Every structure is written in C-alpha cells, then in structure tokens.
Amino acid sequence: MTKTLAGKRAVITGSNSGIGLGVAEALAAAGAEVVLNSFTDRPEDHALAKDLGERHGVVARYITADMSKGADCRALIEKAGGCDILVNNAGIQFVAPVDEFPVEKWDAILAINLTSAFHTTAAALPGMKAKGWGRIVNLASAHGLTASPYKSAYVAAKHGVVGLSKTVALEVAGQGITCNAICPGYVLTPLVEAQIPDQMKAHKMDRETVIREVMLLRQPSRQFATVEQVGGTAVYLCSPAADQVTGTTISIDGGWTAL
Prior knowledge:
Layout: E1 9-12, H1 18-29, E2 33-38, H2 43-56, E3 60-64, H3 70-80, E4 85-88, H4 103-131, E5 134-139, H5 152-172, E6 177-184, H6 190-193, H7 196-203, H8 207-215, H9 227-237, E7 249-252
Parallel strand pairs: 1-2, 1-4, 2-3, 4-5, 5-6, 6-7
Helix pairs in contact: 1-9, 3-4, 4-5, 7-8
C-alpha cells in the first residue's frame, strides 16, 4: 500500500481488538504513526503496538485511558502529543427493555460510546486547527441511523455520534478538517465470533444457518462486514479523495439501512 498517510499521527480509541485494531492496522499500512488505546495496561497491550509498528514500519504506541472518564479521554490526546487523525471507536453494549434497563449501564454506554468522542474531539481540534489539517472518523453503527428493540442506550449513543459528527463538521468546515461517521452493520470481530456457538445452541441451527437467518436477519447481503473493510473506509476518509467528504455517514451494512 502507498504510504499516503506518512507523517500523520492517528489516535484510535478502543483499539486493542476488533474494529479498532483493524482500523489501526489499515492506517499503519498507509504509513500513519498509530496510538492504540484501551482501559487495560497489560504487557500484551504494549506488545500488540510494538508488533503492529514493526510489521508496517511505523511508530506505534499503546496508551491506557478509561474512555468512561472525561479527564482520561483528554489526557489520551495530550499523552499522544496531539493527533492528525482521531478515530473514536471505543464502545460497549447492553441489552434490556427500557423499563428494566440498569441506570449504571445506561450511564456507562453513553459515557463510553458518545461522551468520550466529545472529549477526545475537543482535545484534538486545537492542534488540527493549528496545522490546518485533520481527520475525525467516528465509528457509529447502523444503529446510528435506525433502531432495534432493547438497545435503547446503544441506539441513543450512536445516533448522538452521528449528530456530533455533523456538528463538528460544520464548525470546522473550510479549515482543512473533516469529520464523518462510519456506520457498520454486523462486523465479524472476535466478540461476534464468540457469540455464534451460543446462537447455534439456542436456535438448534448449524453455523451457516444461524448466521444467515438469525444474526444477519436485518443485513440483506446476509454477509458480515469485515474489519478490513471498515479500516479501508477509514483510510479513504483520510485521503485527498475525501477532502470534501464531511458531515456525513458511510454505511457498511450490506443494505440494512436501505430497507
């Protein structure tokens, strides 16, 4: 891959696995210095960054920060030394009816999935404005554009991420900074992969049938999106081809939101 992002520093929240790690891989392959993040501080987290950097020939670091805490979110950007590219990916999920939804779960989901993006963006923007260049890529969801029952906090947060993306885009329009939201449907991550055996058992179906008829029921393609596809979209949004793409959403959902 051409090193189109050489000289750029990217901070990706929630990036020691799954979509976040896939985006970090893609940005590193394009030449960007990358900062991985999660709330843990284990030797394997730092080793992950070291391996990624060595494989792609870029500087790669791991910085621990709890995305449920505003001060940690802002400190992440400061410890990184600022960033040219900010990818807000950190997120958690919980499922329950609204009248049974635990208040602490609601608060945690809103804090990690939405409020963290406000804090990191607010911290990153001054540096981007000073350079006259910046890319903010927010990982929303198909649930940022539509809804499902029992996911009130997640749907509310992801709708908020889409709204925040539009607002930031308008505020920085004409300053060389763009802000967009990627809205994936179901992506085959280790977390999703781990759910398949339980779904097979619960529905008494084989792997292919439970994926097609249960897990991907609302995804018309009946295929998972991949972390590589999400990563490639993030790289596109950071490329010159996307200089005028801002304040919008890009769906990677196999047609889910076309229904």
